[in-house]
Design goal:
By secondary structure, this protein is of the alpha/beta class. The protein has one domain (4-139): Rossmann fold (3-Layer(aba) Sandwich), CATH 3.40.50.620. The chain has four helices and five strands; from the N terminus they run βαβαβαβαβ. It has helices at residues 13-25, 53-71, 90-101, 123-131, and strands at residues 4-8, 30-37, 80-87, 105-109, 136-139. A five-stranded parallel sheet has the order 3-2-1-4-5, sandwiched between helices. The longest helix is centred in the middle third of the chain and has 19 residues, at 53-71. It is globular. The two termini are 29 Å apart. Residues 115-120 have low confidence and may be disordered.
């Protein structure tokens, strides 16, 4: 049976690197491209309030575009790529998604932003590494 690899994607080049790594490293796997819709990440005060139906519909449309762009120029070969979203704080939502998609491993990109103690790994990646019950590969 092929492994299931959860690849969180936030639209960053770091997440894209993690997706490319997963596709190259696990060519016959089931890749689940995942995005956490963060209700606390409101970019514009004129935006709809988080968790209204309109706000959620807009975020889902944004996520569909994110997935399309992430996969646009990639060769997936025999790899099965599925997409999933969930609403919540990214790190915690990624960890919870492991059970939801029956993932065997997580491949996550990192920006390495944050305070000095977290300079080597971003806070979301760090939370995932600390809390996930499956192996986590961090891609820079």
């Amino acid at each position: 049976m092929s492994p299931t690899i959860l690849v969180p994607h936030d639209g960053s080049s770091h997440a894209q690197g993690a997706l490319e790594y997963a596709l190259e490293t696990f060519p016959r796997a089931r890749i689940v491209l995942f995005h956490a819709i963060d209700p606390f990440d409101v970019a514009d005060e004129t935006e709809f309030s988080p968790l209204t139906e309109q706000w959620l519909d807009d975020r889902r449309e944004d996520t569909a575009e994110l997935f399309d762009e992430a996969l646009a120029d990639l060769e997936v070969g025999d790899t099965t790529v599925e997409t999933e979203t969930a609403v919540g704080s990214p790190g915690q939502t990624i960890v919870a998604a492991v059970d939801d998609v029956d993932a065997d491993q997580i491949v996550v990109g990192t920006r390495g932003r944050g305070n000095v103690a977290k300079a080597r790994m971003g806070s979301t990646a760090e939370l995932v590494v600390r809390r996930a019950d499956v192996p986590v590969t961090v891609v820079r």
